[in-house]
Amino acid sequence: xxxxxxxxxxxxxxxxxxxxxxxxxxxxxxxxxxxxxxxxxxxxxxxxxxxxxxxxxxxxxxxxxxxxxxxxxxxxxxxxxxxxxxxxxxxxxxxxxxxxxxxxxxxxxxxxxxxxxxxxxxxxxxxxxxxxxxxxxxxxxxxxxxxxxxxxxxxxxxxxxxxxxxxxxxxxxxxxxxxxxxxxxxxxxxxxxxxxxxxxxxxxxxxxxxxxx
Length: 213
Description:
The chain contains eight helices and ten strands. The radius of gyration is 19 Å and the shape is elongated. It has two domains: 3-141, Jelly Rolls (Sandwich); 144-212, Arc Repressor Mutant, subunit A, CATH 1.10.10.10. The strands form three sheets. It has a four-stranded antiparallel sheet. A three-stranded antiparallel sheet has the order 1-7-3. It is 44% helix and 22% strand.
């Protein structure tokens, strides 16, 4: 099957689809880095399956998850770099086995110049991503750690979340030690059960109340 037909680019004009004929998808194992801080942006990745996490690392080594790239979503770092020649200021890692199609810079630029459907896709996805980035900034700046942690845990737990304290800290933009203290406190209150690599939600209603308190 032609990968374009099963991708977010399926509605491109025939001429634009023809420009993608030479692009072959790649399979990236879990843990594969797509780019690092300071790298030059070489092209635009279209995620067909799987998930890529984009992380920002502070001077002290603490990380925060900026966003995930899943099928239908785009990387705002790549879009900015391709249009302005800025270097990457974050890094991207495949969170699971991922399949993607990589559009070289020349192909991206040609489609942006000639395909209205491609432009609509890029700018619509860019606007959506910027909105989510503003939401992240609002959360980190104004929402209490307990509320962000409760929301992240409830989003991951079914009712067990296969996640480490360090991964939760990265997701909410905090330090691992802070997250561990909060989780230990919740464990003593009977809200969660802590096991190595797993956190079981025992009282979802109590965590819901922490999200809004």
